[in-house]
Amino acid sequence: MATRKSAVIDKDIFRQKLSRYTRQAYYLVPRIVTPSILDIGCGTGIPTIELAILSSGNITAADIDSAALKKLREKIKVLQLKRHIKPVKASLFSLRFRKESFDMIWSEGSISVIGFREGLKAWHRLIKPGGYLVVHDEIKEYKQKMNDISRLNYVLMEHFIISEHVWLHDYFRPLEVRIKELKAVYKNDSGMMKLLDHEACEIEVFRESPGDFASVFYIMQRK
Question: SS3 for 127?
Fold first, then answer.
């Protein structure tokens, strides 16, 4: 059932539209020649691929989801990025990398799993002195988070907000259109209709509280 679902709803298509913000954030970091980057919670690798292309560096792509990593490996093969990206199965709660081994840590949508402050504390040791941390996180408590950054031995260099309107037009509305198209195709298939209804729940949650879906990129430097 899960295989069938993934075959008809590939959310990477919709997430790809937000890659321009990954690029925007990357260009706010001072240039590093062939940087070593740890992408925490890489998923299927949409930001990972962007980082590899932008930086020509060495990306360690970490995630606990085996299926997501498998999909990332397939992309790496097709795009011939094997020498730039190394997928690693690892939990956010146990990142066993050497101290000060990365020029940059990148995290899009994963820090909420362990908490903003907890993530900044835990990841600090992995970044080289003067290196960078880029976090894309939900907008909730973002002013408090900006205050916390300096207290946790980072300098906030830049930040920018992705509004709920962007999320609506670039992600939720195209997803809704796709679900409607598939419902027309599978209207006599009760199993598929149930799966599509489940996918539509995310859209309903957005409609109930769209402001909660705005997000923030933080570009920080390790002290």
Answer: strand
Whether 41 contacts 65, CB under 8 Å:
no
DSSP 139: S
Contacts of 133 (CB under 8 A, 6+ apart): 104, 105, 107, 120, 123, 124, 127, 154, 218, 220, 221, 222
3-state secondary structure of 85: strand
**The pLDDT of residue 8:** 61
Residue 7: predicted pLDDT:
47
Q: What are 201's two structure tokens?
A: 């729940």
Residue 103, both tokens: 């020029």
What is the pTM assigned to this prediction? 0.92
Listed residue (165, 164, 132, 143) closest to 25, CA to CA:
132
Contacts 24+ apart (CB under 8 A), 199-203: 199/9, 199/175, 200/176, 202/172, 202/175, 203/172, 203/175, 203/176, 203/179
Going by C-beta distance under 8 Å and a sequence separation of 6 or more, which residues neighbour residue 211?
A: 139, 164
Tell me the per-residue pLDDT of 124-177, one tens digit each, with 9 for 90 and over: 999 999 999 999 999 999 999 999 999 999 999 999 999 999 999 999 999 999
pLDDT tens digit sequence for 92-107: 999 999 999 999 999 9
